[in-house]
Metal ABC transporter ATP-binding protein (Leucobacter manosquensis), 249 residues
Amino acid sequence: MKTSISVEHVTVRYGDVVALDDASLEVAAGRVTGLIGMNGSGKSTLFKSIMGAVRPELGSVLIDGMAPAAARSSGRVAYVPQSEDVDWAFPISVRDVVMMGRYGRLGVTRRPRAADRAAVEQALARVELAELGDRQIGALSGGQKKRAFVARCIAQDSELLLLDEPFAGVDQRSEAMIVRLLRELAAAGRTVLVSTHDLHALPDLADEAALLLRRVLFHGSVEEALMPERLAHAFGLDARDARETGETL
Ligand SMILES: Nc1ncnc2c1ncn2[C@@H]1O[C@H](COP(=O)(O)OP(=O)(O)OP(=O)(O)O)[C@@H](O)[C@H]1O
């Protein structure tokens, strides 16, 4: 199987806090991989390492053999941020957010061409937001906001998609739509890495799962990842609590 992201023995520290400690993960193309871990387990830091936004103190990250910054500037990496990391008051329309996915392709004039506009309209249609394209991004529901960012990824047409907690504050219909789109993108050969607390969504969403607690404790089938003993270890619970966590999350 083709490996798309290779995280090798990565350690990231913020001052005294060790966010990742010798984390290693191989993420395959053509599959959806779920990244599971409790608050503060290092999921966002792992994404930032893959995007080249934080530099590991030790270890390395390669994307199709390229350094993260180079992969990102070549447009290979699309990212759906956590909602907290977005300035929803920014005066930008939904359509223009999706057009941002095309920026890497626009020439020096930065002027969208017909093909860029068509890609944006197609992406909006795929997430069923065609009618809301003119709306300010902050004037959407939680689920619609996420769908707008997924549309930005679709418009970007990148090999690699990273989604940080795409289901937080999202209605069921939007969640089901995002799951379906991610599976379609993986089936078309894209690499999809999704962090989520939503263990219930995992069997439908992901082909495989990795459990993170500063390092990758387990990476394999979703079924095995959801075994109570494994969840207990990752979430710092005893196995019975972990079973309940799996049932209630
Ligand atoms: N900029 C920062 N400065 C200092 N510490 C940080 C910084 N960013 C993250 N941390 C710390 O690093 C650890 C890992 O954080 P990270 O955001 O990667 O976890 P996470 O798994 O994404 O958490 P959550 O599920 O709550 O989003 C946490 O202890 C966090 O407090």
The longest helix spans residues 172-187. The first strand starts at residue 3 and ends at 14.
